[in-house]
Design a protein that fits this description.
This protein is an alpha+beta fold. It has 2 domains: about 70 residues, no CATH class; about 110 residues, Chitinase A, domain 3, CATH 3.10.50.40. Helix content is about 40%, strand content about 20%. Strands 1, 2, 3, 4, 5, 6 and 7 form a 7-stranded antiparallel β-sheet that branches. Helix 1 packs across helix 2 and helix 1 runs antiparallel to helix 4. The longest helix has about 40 residues. About 15% of the residues are buried.
Length: about 240
């Protein structure tokens, strides 16, 4: 979207706007042409504020003016130079975004490691060889599922901040899925549960969504799930 908006502005597709000179601070908005011109400028300005926070206004307005004149001799840049600038800018944005993601991933990873280390010392919390932690809240007496089984569960998923990012309880309806179709922390954790039990799973990021994250879950997030195993292999 950013590239498209930049190309729209720089190549003068907004050339339908009037460029009639007006030295007044607030140009007239009486005719339809004047209102359309101002409206297009306002909408484009709002978009550019979000997509190009480092917009250089003088150069931007001159580009619009030159594009509207339609005289290639007036233009200060060739189409090739514009394309090169756009590509360089896109690369710059990607590098900045990658740096932000890497920094957040590092921060989340460190926070997760610190949390799990402290949580492992709490009474009632068990840690498996994979690093998964679980805490039995209610003990059931039914069968345990295997990795190829279907299960019906109620759950609430939280970030370490306590923010709920997903909850079947809030939706008012349990979910059914195959244990081999979910994140590794769930596949392992639910096999430790008896039907009818309720457990808290503390899942390290490498057993969850890893550095890629998922929707409202950031990179390398450690997750906490309150899971109730309602039924194994429901009809």
């Amino acid at each position: 979207m950013k590239k498209a908006l930049l190309a729209l502005a720089v190549t003068g597709i907004v050339a339908g706007c009037s460029t009639q000179s007006d030295s007044a601070k607030d140009p007239s908005l009486e005719s339809t042409d004047q209102k359309v011109s101002y409206g297009m400028g306002l909408v484009l300005g709002e978009r550019m504020k979000n997509d190009l926070p480092d917009l250089q206004m003088d150069q931007f307005l001159q580009g619009i003016e030159h594009g509207h004149e339609g005289d290639e001799e007036v233009s200060r840049m060739s189409r090739e130079e514009i394309q090169e600038a756009l590509m360089a800018y896109q690369q710059q944005l990607q590098e900045q975004e990658s740096a932000k993601v890497e920094e957040l991933a590092k921060k989340n990873s460190e926070a997760g490691e610190a949390f799990l280390a402290e949580n492992a010392e709490r009474e009632g919390v068990e840690t498996t060889d994979s690093g998964l932690q679980y805490e039995v809240l209610e003990e059931g007496d039914g069968e345990k599922p295997e990795a190829t089984d279907q299960v019906k569960v109620h759950y609430t998923g939280e970030l370490l901040s306590g923010e709920v990012f997903d909850s079947s309880r809030e939706r008012g309806e349990p979910v059914t899925f195959g244990l081999n179709q979910v994140i590794p922390g769930w596949t392992e954790g639910l096999q430790l549960m008896n039907e009818g039990s309720r457990v808290k799973l503390y899942i390290p990021s490498d057993l969850a969504y890893g550095p890629g994250g998922n929707r409202g879950i950031g990179p390398n997030e450690t997750l906490v799930f309150d899971v109730e195993l309602i039924e194994v292999n429901p009809e």
